[in-house]
Amino acid sequence: MKYNYLILIFCLFSVISAKAQLTDSLANFSLKEAIDYAQNHQSSILNASIDEEIAKNTVKRTIGIGLPQLNGNVNFQDFLKIPTNLLPGEIFGKPGTQIPAQFGVQYQSSFGLELNQLLFDGSYLVGLQATKTYKELSNKNLKRSRIETAVGVTKAYYSVLVSNEQLSLLDANMERLKKSLNDTKALFANGFVEKIDVDRLTVLNNNLETERGNVIRLLELNMNLLKFQMGMNIQLKLVLKDSIGSLQVAEFLAVKDTAAYQNRIEYSLLETQKKLNELDLKRYKSLFLPSLAAFGTTSRSFQSNEFLNLIDRSFPATIIGFRLSVPLLSGGVKAYQVRNAKLEVLKTENNLVNLKNGINLEVEQAQTIYRNGLKSLENQKRNMELAKEVLRVTKIKYEQGVGSSIEVTTAETSLKESQNNYINALYDLLINKVNVDRALGKITY
Predict the structure, then answer these.
(1) What is 27-65+121-289+330-439's CATH topology?
(2) Is the pTM of this model over 0.90?
């Protein structure tokens, strides 16, 4: 009993230690390293890789249909009642009558081999052509998963960086506000200011503390979202190497690129789908052609009325031949299959035109939003610097007795508002930069 108790304690200790090690594990990633990690751990990419392997196996399976097919068979029959046939009585000198007679023996057995080789089948030949396209489609699906993962990781990474920047600004605000609050309390204790001045700054300080707590929780949520996008265990600790200052955001010359759609994996995927639809049409047309196959069988049969003597005598049989199958009448099924396949090709062509226009529109829209966001970020940054200067001057005036506490409170509020506007503009710009790169097809893997 004591031994089992010790084992239980050891197991619990091992589980706790393993969990502690997992939680204490620390990972440092730059944006590029985070994307590279996701390329090897994100489940959507892993599944796309599996689909690519399935496509390779499907290609080999299709090729195998045209290779020789060899089957073996074994047969055993016990005729509990041997079948009876009626023979004309003329054979036995009894015209006008029918004589019952049993043919065969009670026990019959046989085994043999059957070989089939497809010589010509139009649908099989089209299938061989489609295997290469099918494999190409699975490969492009894998690329699309990699691109989508890179976009998701990048946006999540930027969200964490922006939250960190917001937290830094709040910490600076709280440090400055606490100093002002302490100074104001000292002035109030000496009778130089009213209690309402202290109360105003206390309200601002409380609001900042509440906002800081919200940002910390949002930062933790954004960090977990980044881990999820990377395919990383959420319990692991993650530290980002990059910072907002290391990111380069600059205005670019927007060029009307009418060929940007050619760089997009979505357009390439649709082109491949069109190839498959055209091959499908070709396959349905090939169903009107005859098919030819060669076959050969060899067997050996055993017959006896005594089970123990069943294998005493055997009778071999070998057959070779060709099988030609010519479609004659299908009730219009094949004709309508061809018509529907043509319509599917037409739909894909329409989708290609629509996607081309949609991508061109997406490029112009993303570039416009990015340029506007860049200007907005510049304005918000200037506004934030101006708000800092207004607060600095207002505090000097207040300390010299030529200003009011309301002006200081208003300046503090304006600074916090301008910082929030700056954070929002910064986040929007970073996300829009990713959208521009994606629209132009610059994110490739």
Answers:
(1) Outer membrane efflux proteins (OEP) (1.20.1600)
(2) no
